[in-house]
Amino acid sequence: MYESSWVYDELSNVAIKDKRLVNRLIKTAVKLAEHPHCSIPEACGKWAEAKGTYRLLNNPKLSPEAVIMSHRQQTIRRMKGHKIVLDIQDTTSLDYADHPCTEGLGLYSTSEDSKGILLHTSLAVSVTGVSFGLLSQKFWTRDPEERGKKHNRHKSDTKDKESQRWLDSLDSSLKDIPSDIKVVTVCDREADIYDFFNKAVSEGKDLLIRVAQNRKIEEEHKYLIPQIESSSIAGETIVNIPRNIKNKRPSREARLSIKFCPVTIKPPKNRKDAKALSSLQLYAILAEEINPPEGVEPVYWLLLTTLPIETAEDAIEKIAWYTQRWKIERFHYILKTGCQVEELQLETFERLKNAIAIYSVIAWRLLWLTYEARENPDAPCDTVLQEHEWNSLYCMVNKTPIPPKTPPNLKEAVLLIAKLGGFLARKSDGEPGVVVLWRGMQRLNDISQLWLITHPSP
């Protein structure tokens, strides 16, 4: 029954020998994907189905690693044919302070009330912004007993610190990637860690990281920021700054001046193993906004990369890659707001991890649909939607009982889905975003099921 579903493609290769359990996993994921914003009982529709889902999440044979690894196989398949792929890493917190009965939770911040989970995700994205899928995920919590204790953070490497997640994720993300695909790991300022750069340089891996520290260098100005700021302007570029939902700021364009130069980063001196550490040959890029709007914080991006930057075009290309980093933020936004994972009421940390892994695959699908339509607008929509889905979608929005003989293209289909979700499609509205799309997909699931009832196969 579910072989035609995209869920089957993503999860049918899960490493579980029990075929009944695999079928239950796929069936559950289909139900949750049809109503991602609903609670588990609401999404399942019947108590018997909900009980089956709870038993699945509690089954020791199921693990979040198994779920993500099955999906990862499809992620790598979608990456093939692309010479360069961006591996975007980021960490988010999941708040379960309102679920005091859930066992195994810890802290996710320095506050004693921050009960929840920390989640680190690696997302594979094309250089133009289409998401291929997840490459790895890691869950952890902080021990409340360790809160407030001082640690010798600067006198050792990352092995016993949370920052080790960046290095571990670099390994797990790149494992078994075909050698003809160049993967560039893109991260924000939290990943500005000497050990992260050192690992990448020593292993021949590529990083593009936004700088958080004014690092010591071997060049004339002794520190990174004055060195790059003293460089001459090499060119200009225009980038799109996405809408800031938290601060209620609309999307906008920003014109940036570009500077770049090679730099030699010195190892940190306050480490026990400082004498054994090497200086690192990297490249710095500075993008500063020209004439920013009044009242808006101007763009100031200082990037470090292992990739050679020899021309203005090289620097502009890397800045364009860095702007794709927002895709991981959109993914986490969909996971928390669209899939409502912080509302899950499950008894243990282990069950929560299993549920979040399943919802992560669902959240990726919503993210992929949003940007695939922008990248490949003329592709037929039957690559995404089943026949009864695009038939019912077309007839519902256009108020006609007769669907077209051929499916609409992907751009038109996504626009129709967005209209179901409340998108007005005015000239000033731009492209539909993930919020209206997940609302539209929820309505489409109900409409298409009714279509199957009223249009039985001959």
List the helices and strands and how they pair.
Blueprint lengths: L5 H6 L7 H16 L5 H5 L2 H12 L5 H16 L4 E12 L10 E2 L7 E12 L4 E10 L23 H11 L7 E6 L6 H10 L2 E5 L13 H6 L5 E7 L10 E14 L14 E10 L10 E6 L6 H12 L2 H13 L10 H27 L11 H12 L11 H11 L13 H21 L4
Parallel strand pairs: 1-5, 5-6
Antiparallel strand pairs: 1-3, 2-3, 3-4, 6-10, 7-8, 8-9, 9-10
Helix pairs in contact: 2-4, 5-11, 6-7, 10-11, 12-13, 12-14, 13-14
Mean pLDDT figure? 91
SSE string, helix = H, strand = E? HHHHHEEEEHEHEHEEEEHHHHHH
Total E-strand runs: 10
Classify the secondary structure makeup into a structural class. alpha+beta
Q: Compute the gyration radius: what is it? A: 24 Å
User: How many angstroms does the end-to-end distance come to?
Assistant: 17 Å
Approximate strand percentage: 15-25%
Query: Could you state the CATH homologous superfamily of the domain at 376-454?
Result: Transferase Inhibitor Protein From Tn5, Chain
Count of helix runs: 14
Sheet bearing the most strands, described? 10 strands, mixed
Tell me the CATH topology of the domain at 376-454.
Answer: Transferase Inhibitor Protein From Tn5, Chain A, domain2
Please state the overall shape, judged from the principal axes of the Cα atoms. globular
Do you know the CATH architecture of the domain at 376-454? Orthogonal Bundle
For the record, the CATH class of the domain at 376-454 is Mainly Alpha
Specify the helix fraction band.
25-40%
Low-confidence stretches: none
